[in-house]
Amino acid sequence: MIGNIARRWRTLSGQDNWNNLLEPLDIDLRRYLIHYGEMTQVAYDAFDSEKASKFAGCSKFSRKDLFDKIGLSKSNPLKYNPTKYIYATSQVKVPEGFILKSWSREAWCRESNWIAYVAVTTDEGKAEMGRRDILIAWRGTVQKLEWVDDFDFPLVSASEIFGAESYPMVHEGFLSIYTSDDPRSPNCITSARDQVLTEVKRLVQEFKDEEISISITGHSLGAALATLNAADIVVHGLNGTKDRPNNPCPVTAFVFACPHVGNSNFQKLLESKTNLHILRVRNEPDIVPDYPPLGYSAVGEELLIDTRKSNYLKSNGDLGSWHNLECYLHGVAGWQGRDGGFQFVVKRDIALVNKASDYLKDEYLVPASWWCMENKGMVQMDDGTWKLDDHEKDND
Q1: If DSSP codes are grouped into helix, strand and coil, which group holds residue 164?
Q2: Contact 10, 211 (CB under 8 A)
Q3: Catalytic amino acids?
Q4: Are the beta carbons of 279 and 255 closer than 8 angstroms?
């Protein structure tokens, strides 16, 4: 099922910049990308986007139950333990949907949302992955694609994070979500950046005597945050320990539908870091990777797919279907290159396409948007009335 991932993990994580692996698409790399894409999808599936809930903007599930509740544990040998939930806010105004707010007067928080999680392979997962993998998965926006036109923020200096020498500039909105804190929010007293870097330092220290990697993944907005996060870790040497600064572990970002993040100086900075590798997966008709359109430079290597070639998907695709993460993973599983057709090379359940959409052809008899809590989280009380109860308390 998992092929030669344990033996080839350094190559699959970009040691040679994926030379000769992208065209034709290597079968183990397909599995690898789908794995990290699924870890990103977890953050979508667990996110509470119901504004009627006082826990809107939070994870529905606790860390200890996260992968079981999402359905990622069955028949999956690539085991991880979630170690930390990450929350974000923004000091600049961002489009509605980036920071979702509950309608309830008893809302758990009005200033921040759950944006990412950190996990690390179990001993079983380590054996299958070939090393101890520290994973950071960043969630994208739950809003429809209208946000693209509303997110045309200027480039601003990121020298405070990356140093003034190269004067890198990045998208103001992405930087704000990554670096903002808010003393009013119990979850964002420190920024998403500080939360995740603190956890990375802890885990690198804990597993310093083992072979480790740091893998960062995200989709859409989450892909942009993953890019900033990966660069941040390497620039500050957090992929090594104080007693072993000359033996850093590799840091790889696997990003899907990534918008532009920074200017040419930012691109050059990332290219100068030998232990940093970025692979961008892009669906050809998806417009998000072209935004913002001016003043930006793409980073890393690109894997281009085209889900319009799939004979499983409805032919009248739209911007939503071309940007959808499950459709991306469907494409990775069957993409045969620019001159080829579409044929599954690795096992991938087509029902996953319709998890939160209606993009699968009707003949496959999979209901649209079938992923939801039973009764949308409504639970019947002993007196026969119904109450919304859609949240498990986390054990942070």
Answers
A1: coil
A2: no
A3: 220, 286, 323
A4: yes
